[in-house]
Design goal:
It contains eight helices and 23 strands. The chain has 441 residues and is an alpha/beta fold. A ten-stranded mixed beta sheet has the order 14-16-15-17-18-23-22-21-19-20, sandwiched between helices. It is globular and about 85 Å long. It starts with 20 loop residues before the first strand and ends in an 18-residue tail after the last helix. The model is unreliable at 1-17 and 426-441 (pLDDT under 50). Keywords: Amino-acid biosynthesis, Arginine biosynthesis, ATP-binding, Glutamine amidotransferase, Ligase, Nucleotide-binding. One of its GO terms (molecular function) is ATP binding.
Length: 441
Amino acid sequence: MMLFIRSSSFKVPQLLRGLATHAAAADIRLPAVLHLKSGQSYAGRAFGAPRSIWGETVFSTSITSYTESMTDPSYRGQILVFTSPMIGNYGVPLNSAPRDSRDVGMILESKKIQCSAVVVSDLAEKYSHYSAVESLSSWCLRHDIPGITGVDTRAITTLLRDQGTTLGRLAIGQEVSAPQPAENEYWDPTTENLVDQVSTKIPYVLNPTGDVKIAVLDFGVKANILRSLVRRNAAITVLPWNFDFNTVRDDFDGLFLTNGPGDPTKCLDAALNLRRTLKEWDRPVFGICMGHQVIGIAAGLDAYRMTFGNRGHNQPVLALASSGSIKAGRVYVTSQNHQYALTLQDPFPAGWEPFFINCNDSSVEGIKSTAESGKKVWGVQFHPESAGGPLDTIDMFSDFVAECRSDMLRRYAEVESDDSTIHQGVGMDTTSSPRPISVQA
């Protein structure tokens, strides 16, 4: 039997809240213009903070996770152009989380917006997501970050791709009518030590009850790197970028070097300290992005500035060697954010070999110690932890933590064997395992 319902007798109840929330529009009425040092200007409307800024203009090909990109400390000092046409459609979540074995105190990649400004083609005036608490515009206003919308980001991206990253000036309000700045007026953020601006000033500990102790040199760490370590039950101690790890290295089972903004040559102090570590210390070391570049410099490689860098969640890399979950000959899709890279040279420094190569531009995407060196060191230019982006290489964290844990257990076994030898014949029981060594940081 078929049942027919007349449309006039059936009413859908009206929800108190619509499917999307309107963003406040009052702060996007000011005029704005993006000036580039190369001579071009792009006019649009302002949103966020009503103030003008200087910065380095870069583009990202990511199509999602704008909140994660904007809070990534590696974007410090940069005017971020999103190639994706609509930005802001799912709003901004509450950036708060526990500090426990599952999280590190925040949802996004840091506590605040790190880029200097954002450039979007179409700012969403409505946002819709179950976790959203505010619009992109109001979030930028609250963090004093300006933005511009209504510009052709395709044209800007094409320009930056063809001529390279350039310095910029985002003028808002009355400053729109001012002449374009002279070339010598543009501020270059890379002349400053951006790493020192974003690195922690004092050491702190996360997941202190973890079963393996890892030190983290903070060059501008993304929260998901820390999260990826603590979720693998590592007790991590986060140290300032220029902290001399050699003074405490025997207290740890591994060393991790994080991502960070700017020029790696500003971090030569860290590279020199690391060179001693690599020479005298045989425990696992892993570096990502800036950390990878610092490892390369410590190993004897040079770093250079790329034309426009690699920024996005869709960068393919080819594995040249196998290690743990990584298999030689396979292409992995990765998330990246960097302007500098290590020089590919032949021969490579003794004890080192290329690990990954970029499939688009053949730049070095990873290095590792050789099996003959007896070391356990890896560095990758991309971000295995994603946030956002693909998870093709996320198991590199499991590989690293497992290597630290295995190395720790080996050392404990050696200590137990030495104790057994020392105490043989003096009436002591050597058959029981030693009391576990504390891993409190």
